[in-house]
Design a protein that fits this description.
The complex is a heterodimer. Chain A is α/β, with parallel strands linked by helices. Chain A has helices spanning about 30-40, 75-80, 95-105, 115-120, 125-130, 150, 160-165, 185-210, 220-225, 230-235, 270-280, 295-300, 300-315, 320-330, 340-345, 345-350, 395-400, 405-415, and strands at about 25, 45-50, 85, 110, 135-140, 210-215, 255, 265, 335, 355-360, 365-370, 375.
Chain lengths: ~450, ~450
């Protein structure tokens, strides 16, 4: 281990996050929108999540097969850590004014609304630019701000992107119907790529003082990932078809059924890796077989299928753990397939602090994933989870806009600011003492 | 494409397009034009993908390969090569300068150190420990350049009990280790075995999504580190493990098991958390149907003419529909309804419903499940600049997925697709090392480049 990561987990809280001092406003719901600002919050930015009172983000209702954690959506918790929660009615003029005051003091604002909505609310890019020329303003949605699909006012979401990009088509086994991913990949990945755009814009602003407007379509974004697909189709004139667990660009690289009926994945394309695998199988001669010796030749379909068949027959005689151990011994990549139990119990994830316990004033102790970039000088960190709708109104209004309680009460009276509806996922957990988690207590 | 009536907000669309159309990218500055990147990636596409994202934003990116080239150049379906390069690298060599350098030699490592002295960011994907063993790990290089942002992308990270493994990072292995593959795939019906239905098993995604995710997280980390460095002058080391990066996009599985002991299992083309949300068959293929609000689900039921029969008027909450038994029950009821239409018919019904339906403007999401071939030939994406071919002097006209986001000021752009091994030795070694033809010939003879 390099010294630079010695005691990384232990000393995390002796160092700042990299984005200390960056302020972000988010007006986002579901997953595509909020995931990006969360990544910034995990890296130390101050992120204010603005919801429409009193129901807020619809994700607060979502749950796997009826399971809620302390009456909160586990999805919502996972996707929205480290934020401050404000409920502001952007449909009304006074709400829009407050938003502009906040935006004047922010670096980044993020939205996932249909095209044109921000302008209708008088908080479009042109409006915010007037009060803050350096603002970095991003709008994320299904089809972007212009173009035929956008102008059809089509709604979209993750599953639609998986379908429209060709992503699902190439993710099943051959001759089977297209397969949807179990995770909301186009949402989360779109959120992540959006921050590449935002952080690059931040760098540009530092040099020039200029802000910018950014738009992202989640379908276009996921197509960027499918890199080899496009020139292959262009240059061969053939469409890409699915190949199940077999990686069609790398050989061997596949998932195999093992003696214990568990699955193991392995990959061994490099000459040393392939030789290691052949030796592990007790068939070193395969490494010099003309069908398999060179990676490009080995990739040709009939050769690839032949070597994968040999490996599959061998894998059926070993347990998944044995294959993983042989991978370590012979230096080819191999792992037993991990599931939710492994995620929780694996010492590697725990010792790296990637899986860790959160100690939250409202939701207590629970297990969470850390931000997956370990940064030696500026460790990102998740500290707290979600809050009820409008929970931090008083704090934000006092800290950033200097409003006193009388002024804040006035805004409640006019419905500009709001608090949670008495509804699951919106209100505090039932064991809440009326105080815990409040930054400004009354 | 049939003519359509433009929406009320068409002036907004025109206004934004006038500001951010990718066709005008070259009139605009580049966000990262002041940064120099050294990309030492080996065997993993996560590294080249990461450096592509930064090179698309103008970073001067020097891709260093061992003489003979990196294995990634051979990654291609059926072993198909175009002018000596596989399909994967012909996409992710974009905008980079390609040089060779033999890090197994001391002189090669000295040259690397000189380049590092002039660089901002280094990306590497060797098994952990390899760079240190060569004497060019973070500690050594930080002595030469304390502002360096040194980024490692690996299978098992730079620390932790598994980090000592001498294994390279591969996408399919990372997908398997992330927990995502476990929960994705067709459900094996009761009484059947994998021998009967080998496809009803845990299934990875077709694209290299684990690599893309770790490469993108690395890019985000790098840009955040650049921000910090601009304020403090300090560089640092970044450690990304590909399975962890991909696992971070997995939502509730970890917590569900910790709290309830539930291992999230495959649920086919439905979704454990969401309703209406799944793939359904049509006359000519299939569609995705989505509507996470009750009204959207009701609107769908209305579109297929079952609003009264199924009693949609009485539904007051989506909650029961998310339960497993209801999902399966309604899936079986929906299947015959969607099979009465083509995918296009259902899509247009949803768009029309938004204008005239009883719950308008609310309408369900309907999206045709298309093959990548159709996606690439879709006029709408082409109009938005996603598949604009790059005119590459070496490889010819190459379709490169690009314009994944658009912006008014510093949009990403693709200038060239790839370069052969060592193509830029002349330019880069002259620019950064002052080496002319005589010195280059000498180094070639010695096997250093």
């Amino acid at each position: 281990m390099p010294d630079v990561f010695k005691d990384y987990v232990k000393k995390k809280f002796s160092k700042p996050g990299p984005l200390k001092g960056v302020r972000v406003l988010e007006v986002c719901t579901l997953l595509f929108g909020p995931s990006g600002p969360s990544f910034l919050a995990e890296m130390g930015a101050e992120v204010i999540k603005i919801e429409l009172p009193p129901a807020g983000d619809v994700t607060r209702s979502l749950n796997p097969f009826g399971w809620f954690y302390k009456e909160q959506s586990p999805m919502f918790m996972h996707i929205n850590p480290n934020k401050y929660y404000m409920a502001l009615d952007l449909h009304i003029d006074m709400g829009q004014q407050i938003f502009k005051e906040l935006a004047a003091k922010a670096d980044i604002v993020e939205f996932n609304l249909r095209p044109g909505v921000t302008r209708r609310w008088n908080i479009g890019y042109e409006h915010i630019k007037e009060v803050n020329p350096g603002i970095i303003y991003i709008e994320k949605n299904g089809f972007g701000q212009w173009g035929t699909y956008a102008e059809q006012d089509r709604p979209s979401n993750d599953g639609a992107s998986q379908a429209l990009a060709g992503y699902a088509w190439m993710s099943s086994f051959p001759k089977r119907p297209p397969l949807k991913q179990s995770i909301w990949i186009c949402d989360y990945y779109g959120g992540l790529m959006g921050e590449v755009a935002v952080l690059a814009a931040l760098h540009h602003r530092r040099k020039t003082g200029k802000g910018q407007f950014i738009e992202m379509s989640q379908t276009e974004n996921i197509m960027r990932v499918m890199n080899w697909v496009w020139p292959y189709q262009q240059l061969t004139g053939k469409g890409v078809e699915p190949t199940g667990n077999r990686d069609q660009c790398i050989c061997p690289a596949d998932t195999f059924l093992c003696a214990d009926n568990l699955l193991a994945a392995l990959a061994a394309p490099g000459p040393d890796e392939f030789l290691g695998l052949c030796q592990a199988m007790g068939k070193a001669e395969l490494a010099v077989d003309p069908r398999f010796q060179d990676h490009t030749v080995r990739l040709q379909d009939e050769n690839a299928l032949a070597i994968l068949k040999i490996i599959a027959d061998w894998a059926r005689t070993k347990t998944a753990d044995e294959i993983e151990a042989l991978g370590k011994e012979f230096s080819f990549a191999a792992t037993r397939l991990h599931n939710a139990k492994d995620m929780n119990e694996d010492p590697q994830r725990r010792e790296r602090g990637f899986v860790k316990e959160i100690d939250d004033p409202l939701y207590g102790q629970y297990v969470e994933h850390e931000f997956p970039v370990m940064m030696s000088k500026t460790p990102p960190k998740i500290k707290w989870t979600v809050r009820p709708v409008g929970f931090d109104n008083e704090f934000i209004m006092a800290k950033i806009l200097g409003r006193n309680q009388t002024q804040i009460d006035e805004l409640y009276l006019h419905g500009v600011l709001g608090k949670w509806k008495d509804m699951q996922g919106r209100r505090p957990p039932s064991d809440w003492d009326g105080q815990a988690g409040y930054i400004i207590r009354r | 494409m049939t003519e359509q009536k433009r929406p009320k907000w068409a002036d907004w669309a025109d206004h934004i397009r006038s500001l951010d159309d990718p066709a005008k990218n070259y009139e605009k500055p580049e966000a990262l034009g002041d940064l120099t990147i050294i990309d030492l990636s080996s065997r993993s596409m996560a590294g080249p993908y990461c450096s592509s994202l930064l090179a698309e934003l103008g970073a001067e990116t020097i891709r260093i390969e061992a003489p003979g080239g990196d294995l990634v150049r051979s990654y291609s379906p059926n072993g198909f090569m175009h002018r000596g390069t596989g399909m994967a690298y012909i996409q992710e060599g974009r905008n980079k300068y390609h040089i060779t350098l033999n890090l197994e030699t001391e002189e090669g490592r000295d040259i690397l150190k000189s380049l590092v002295g002039q660089a901002d960011i280094l990306i590497e994907t060797f098994p952990a420990g390899k760079m240190d063993a060569w004497g060019i790990g973070y500690e050594e290089l930080a002595k030469i350049n304390p502002r360096l942002i040194y980024t490692s992308i690996t299978g098992y990270g730079q620390f932790g009990p598994e980090s000592g493994r001498n294994q390279y990072d591969y996408d399919n292995v990372a997908q398997a280790r992330s927990g995502v593959q476990y929960a994705t795939g067709e459900v094996l019906p009761e009484g059947k075995t994998l021998e009967d239905m080998p496809y009803a098993t845990s299934t990875k995604a077709g694209p290299w999504i684990a690599w893309a995710v770790s490469g993108t997280f690395a890019a985000v980390g790098i840009l955040a580190a650049v921000y910090y460095r601009e304020m403090t002058g300090e560089g640092q080391a970044l450690d990304v493990s590909t399975p962890e990066a991909y696992e971070r996009l997995n939502d509730y599985m970890l917590h569900w098991y910790a709290d309830q002991g539930v291992v999230n299992e495959r649920f086919g083309n439905l979704d454990t958390c969401l309703w209406l949300y799944g793939f359904y068959p049509t006359k000519d293929g299939g569609v995705f149907l989505g509507g996470l609000r009750l009204e959207m689900w009701k609107a769908f039921v209305d579109i297929v003419g079952k609003y009264d029969e199924w009693g949609a008027e009485q539904w007051t909450t989506l909650a029961p529909f998310m339960k497993k038994d209801w999902q399966l029950k309604y899936q079986a009821m929906i299947n015959p309804e969607t099979l009465r239409y083509t995918s296009q018919e259902l899509t247009m019904k949803s768009i029309e419903y938004a204008k005239k339906g009883r719950l308008a403007p609310i309408t369900p999401v309907v999206a045709e499940i298309v093959p990548p071939w159709s996606a690439m030939h879709d006029e709408v994406w082409r109009d938005r600049g996603v598949f604009t071919p790059v005119q590459d002097p070496v490889y010819g006209s190459i379709v490169c997925a690009q314009a994944q986001w658009k912006s008014t000021e510093t949009p990403p752009r693709t200038k060239w697709a790839c370069r052969p091994v060592g193509y830029d030795n002349g330019f880069v070694y002259l620019k950064y090392m002052g080496y002319g033809p005589v010195k280059l010939w000498e180094m070639t003879e010695k096997g250093i480049i």
